[in-house]
Amino acid sequence: MLLKVCGATRREDVALLGASGTDLIGLWHGVPGGHADLSLGRFSALAQACRSAWATATRPAPDPIMVTFLRDPAAILEASRAADVRWLQLHGYQPPAVVAAIKRDRPEATVVKVLHVTGDACVERPLLASYERAGTDMFLFDATSPGGQVGSTGVSLDPDVVIDLAEATTIPFLLAGGISAHNRPRYDKVSAHPRFAGVDVDTAARDLTGAFCPVRVSGIRQQWRAVPDMEEVA
Asked: Taking the model in full, what pTM does it have?
């Protein structure tokens, strides 16, 4: 199971998250007005810091993942190449054509397309097959707030809605939206799904001051990597 923690802005963040067992560190670039948006230079520097972060013989350094609202494939490709980042998370409403353009130019890239869910409705649902044909490697299911906020909303998804959306796709998926160590049991059916790939967190990985907390990150990692009791899930 992958643990992705989003919104690092400092080398200290990267070091803490790497030491706490994070697999993917989300670096924001091209997120206008975002609290963690990074200039291209800062994005590149932190991507390099991820690759140099704390690791062990059994656990590699975390991979940086570019989190962006950019819609221009050329701009996405330019930034990802400059930072030497292979994981790309399209967090806005980019159409399948953007995915196709990225994969044509960088077939080795891992493209994660966010699916925005409000209540039980997913705005990208009619395009799921098109995203897959375009070359999307993984979906990320995330909740939008009632007011339309996208990303880091703290709003949780209904597990049944997640399962229904997962069954409409054929590729692995990450789960976001209010994920924490405490609500892990609520998602036993989701974590038991054969295409469940991991979780994406932001707010729950931080303390009351807004700083990343190693105890919280490690707790999320431990709880979500526990194998659910399949008899209870059934």
From this structure: 0.92
